[in-house]
Amino acid sequence: MLMLLSVLLKLTGVIFLCIAALGVIRLPDPFQRMHAATKAGTLGAGLVLLGSILSHGEMDAVVLGLLTLLFLLLTVPVAGHLLGRAAYVSGARLALAGGDALEGVLRRAPHPLDERIKWPPNQPSGARKAGPDERQASAPFRHLVEPRGALKPLPALQAVRFAVIDGEVQPPAERACSIAKGNGTSLTAHVLIDTHAIAAASEQAQMRRQIRDRASRALLALKACTLRTGSEPVLVYDEGDPEQLLTCSEAPGRTLLVLPCKGWFHHQAEGRRDLTTWDPDGLLRLPSCHRGPVLYTSGKALPESARTIVVRDCGEEHLSALTEWALLSGLWDVTKLVHVTSRPGSPSHLAGVARRFGCDYLQLAANGDDCSIPVGTEDVRAVILGHTPRPLRTSWYGTPWRERIAPGLESDVLIMEPQTSAPA
């Protein structure tokens, strides 16, 4: 009799486990899948355990089975609650009808994770893909394109992300919060730890602790900054190669990366091993990884009269589109556009960009082939570059990298590298 009851309990448990597995596979959102896994899964596993206890019948099997069942009942509900909370906070879609009962209670990401990492969404088999003409017609800012020979404009800004580096937290955080709020976009703060710095240290464990402590201090400064600005960025904490962690596969223009003008993700911790050639200096390599606009800001308060934007034209084809995108995104309030070019007198789409935004247009001759602008350019609010100044070092023989653009430059610098391949 006990053996028959044991078999029935095991069969019933297996049926519930199959139902739980089917629910995990077929239910539409993570909250329903979590419900199937925790409720039906726990019931099925519990019944299988009870059947095993009855089939063995010995005291040690009974004690072990009951302890296992107790462990399941104590841990699975907690795990389900934490998984559901994590799914909600990450912005997972809600498939059930009705309101969001947790709105205003828990902070929630504005977009689901698959949209943020551009995972291809499931498309119904009967859905028709938009043709190239339809995609072009639906592109933003199409009405701003010049009638003939103009470049395709960049898409609208959809996300702003910024680096959190100890000692350089406030400038990029405040600037990113302001831009995201002005454009109604998502906001992400990246707190990264460069593992190359740990590998190059003489005492790696001590270096890791030191960097993590400084990153924690940067987080406290970030919290104070976001409280002042009234913003709630999504926080991303990770360890690895920052150039890989900040790689962006979005179409150039959809995501803006805001960085300080100095510092790195070892958070200025010292402890490099002797005779090690690795140098923690990679800020100017990030535009090539980000594949889109990168804004370097020092946070220095400029005078109200600084309303000139300087565009250094070295022949990059995307420079006019980048300038138009920056003005459409409201990065600065400017009244004058200075076009510095090696080909003075040649026609440029930048004149049309200045005209559309009501800015005075002035064309100046460049002094050389580098990214420098003429000395004496006054009231500069920002400089736009079509490629990163070389060498890719924030300090070259003791000279800050913005000094290579103009002596004493304190303005923002917006950079976007040429795109060598079509965006994914």
From TrEMBL:
<keyword id="KW-1133">Transmembrane helix</keyword>
<feature type="transmembrane region" description="Helical">
    <location>
        <begin position="6"/>
        <end position="25"/>
    </location>
</feature>
<dbReference type="InterPro" id="IPR005133">
    <property type="entry name" value="PhaG_MnhG_YufB"/>
</dbReference>
<protein>
    <submittedName>
        <fullName>Monovalent cation/H(+) antiporter subunit G</fullName>
    </submittedName>
</protein>
<feature type="region of interest" description="Disordered">
    <location>
        <begin position="114"/>
        <end position="135"/>
    </location>
</feature>
<keyword id="KW-0472">Membrane</keyword>
<keyword id="KW-0812">Transmembrane</keyword>
<dbReference type="Pfam" id="PF03334">
    <property type="entry name" value="PhaG_MnhG_YufB"/>
</dbReference>
<feature type="transmembrane region" description="Helical">
    <location>
        <begin position="61"/>
        <end position="83"/>
    </location>
</feature>
<feature type="transmembrane region" description="Helical">
    <location>
        <begin position="37"/>
        <end position="55"/>
    </location>
</feature>
